[in-house]
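re: ur question from earlier - yeah i can do the single chain one, its not a big deal. heres the input i used so u can compare w yours
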Amino acid sequence: MELTKIQIVESIHNQTGLPKNKSTDIVETLLEIIKSTLASGEDVIISNFGRFCVKEKRERKGRNPPTEDDLMLESRKVVTFKCSGKLRDRVNSK
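and the output i got, formated as C-alpha cells:
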C-alpha cells in the first residue's frame, strides 16, 4: 500500500491538531521547496531520512522494442534518492 499526499495531510492534521487547510499548505509548501531546489540542480538532504539528488544521464544508444529500430536517447536529468543509514536500518528491522 502506498502513502498518498492526502494521507500525509490527514496524518499531520491528526497528529498536530492543525486544521486540514493549514496541514495541506504545509505539505504543499514543503513539496514546492523540494521541487524548486531540485530544479535548480541542488541536492535536498533530510537528516535521518535521505538525500534527493539530480544526476545527469548522458546520451546513449537505445532500441524501439516493437520495431527493433536503433535510436539515440538524448541526455537528460533524473532525480535519485539515497536513504540514510538510519532509515535503511528501520526499514530492514524485524
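The longest helix spans residues 20-39. not sure if urs matches, ping me
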